[in-house]
What we know:
Blueprint: E1 9-10, E2 16-20, E3 23-27, E4 32-36, E5 41-45, E6 49-54, H1 59-80, E7 83-90, E8 95-99, E9 102-106, E10 113-116, E11 121-125, E12 130-135, H2 138-150, E13 161-164
Amino acid sequence: xxxxxxxxxxxxxxxxxxxxxxxxxxxxxxxxxxxxxxxxxxxxxxxxxxxxxxxxxxxxxxxxxxxxxxxxxxxxxxxxxxxxxxxxxxxxxxxxxxxxxxxxxxxxxxxxxxxxxxxxxxxxxxxxxxxxxxxxxxxxxxxxxxxxxxxxxxxxxxxxxxxxxxxxxxxxxxxxxxxx
Length: 180
């Protein structure tokens, strides 16, 4: 039995979970999420919890059991509290600001980079060197954060670039000064 898959998911007040036509819909105060469901798993909704069970004891059924339990859990957390990811910018002259529906980044290139902000994700700047990406879908928040980070990943010698707030950049030692 899957250790994660067998755990029931608590549904907080104000969140509505509906399963119909191989789709699961979760509505809450922050928004609404819809996801299609695989035929290998069965999702049962009660008044205050959701239970995911597998229909058959095959390898694919076992693998989707824990996955769909966690996906439904992330949907419930997303519509009730939301997800956010912080990015830090390190470097002299590196900065970010939100202008309208785009994020303008000065990252040491000759021109600033304009990153279009999608409608389902919110991006805010806490000062010129901290970017906060937030939304209801955990996958979208992580994907947008990774795309912003890839514009100037941290380099290993001085640590300049964009990094996650909990990421540690291992710096390398530069060249030694003298010849022998």
